[in-house]
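Please check the following for our workbook:

***
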Amino acid sequence: MLKSLFAFDGRLGRAGYAKLTFVSMVMLMIGVFSIAMPIVAAQMNGEQATPVGFGVIGGVIFLGMGLWSAVACSIRRMHDMGYSPLWLTLCFVPLKEVALIAVFGLTIAMSFIPGRPDPRVIRDQVEP
């Protein structure tokens, strides 16, 4: 599963997309909490300096792994649907409204649109 979480090549069905996206979101949440908790704790104690330790460094690593795997899963799902992964660049438009609509729209589309048959697989043809 770990190899399929970070690979960009191949195809990914709807069920696999749901599973791997869930794992990616958990990694992103762990990263955000690992970075935010020391900052919040320092501010609550009245400290001006933000502590940088293993928790923050681990949080950055988890954020990177979660983002990498989310993009990899999305690219593989776009391949399975028969669309170009360049559609994912809409998620990085600097306008907040466009990016949010693109993220939600593409997530819904990748969750519900079935994949196309693989053109490399030769099907048995029935002769009349």
About this structure: The helical segments are 2-6, 14-44, 54-81, 96-112. DSSP finds four helices and no strands in the chain. The mean pLDDT is 83.
